[in-house]
Design a protein that fits this description.
The chain has helices at about 10-50, 130-135, 135-145, 245-250; strands at about 1-5, 65, 80, 85-90, 95-105, 105-110, 125-130, 150-165, 185-190, 195, 205, 210-215, 220-225, 230-240. By secondary structure, it is of the alpha+beta class. The longest helix is centred in the N-terminal third of the chain and has 39 residues, at about 10-50.
């Protein structure tokens, strides 16, 4: 149950994102990988000894750092940053996907501001660009020249997902805050992935027929793999919709209050 918004994203722009995004994402993951491995090894060793793990003096490649506490997670678990942006394995419903990495191309301006609360993810005043975004120049141009002012009135979180598993993602809902409806543009980058969303009374999830959309993230949804030989990539830009987009959505059931 998705609302297709392809008319707000040119097909040429969409097609032009894939190659550069795939290269930049792979490069960032390769730089971060040794740090992820070392952190996991330290956690495993500490668990075997029955002690708390130490994350002091973790070796990191150039541009990679470990933040404790995490700025995104706001907890004491270590958070890996590449060029100032957090890279995190996708985790939901107490399940973690080690093949799926989320890139925070914009970060909370500081920890403790509540930027990661669902109601605050679209607040531009709580988020800032980081150098990692400059590693994705086509995404940066897309956000500020194609989305801002045309689709969204302001931009909060910019979140890229890269999945190399060749499998479907984890079924989940984002939140159960009945009175709150997240506003964001979701696009798939390339054709290896789409999103499927369950409507209020459907047995099966309905896949997106298009490349750009909004969906009510209070409903169960799942990334669907269409090509296991290629990385599955998507981009979500949180903010607040322009009047033009709101007019397009006016009669959509879960947007106007029905079916939520």
């Amino acid at each position: 149950m998705t609302l297709v918004l392809d008319e707000f994203v040119s097909e040429a722009t969409w097609k032009g994102l894939k190659e550069s995004v795939e290269v930049a994402a792979k490069e960032a993951i390769e730089r971060a990988h040794p740090t992820f491995v070392e952190l996991e090894e330290r956690v495993k060793a500490a668990k075997e000894k029955g002690v708390q793990p130490s994350f002091a003096d973790v070796k990191c490649a150039e541009g990679v750092a470990v933040s404790i506490p995490g700025i995104v997670t706001e907890c004491n678990d270590p958070e890996v940053h590449v060029d100032g942006g957090a890279l995190k394995y996708f985790e939901t419903n107490k399940k973690k996907s080690p093949s799926t990495v989320g890139f925070y191309l914009r970060m909370p301006k500081q920890a403790g501001t509540g930027a990661m609360e669902h109601e605050q993810r679209g607040e531009s005043k709580l988020w800032k660009d980081v150098p990692l975004l400059d590693r994705f120049p086509e995404v940066k141009r897309f956000v500020y020249e194609e989305v801002l002012g045309k689709v969204l009135t302001e931009v909060g979180r910019v979140w890229l997902i890269y999945d190399s598993s060749g499998k479907d993602g984890i079924k989940h809902t984002d939140h159960d805050i009945h009175a709150f409806r997240s506003e964001f543009l979701w696009i798939r980058i390339g054709t290896a992935k789409t999103i499927a969303v369950r409507s209020d009374d459907a047995v099966e999830l309905s896949p997106l027929e298009g490349y750009a959309c909004w969906f009510d993230s209070r409903f169960e949804h799942q990334a669907k793999c269409l090509d296991p030989t290629s990385p599955a990539i998507s981009l979500r830009i949180d903010g607040y919709f322009t009047d033009e987009v709101r007019e397009r959505m006016a009669n959509y059931p879960t947007w106007n209050g029905d079916g939520a």
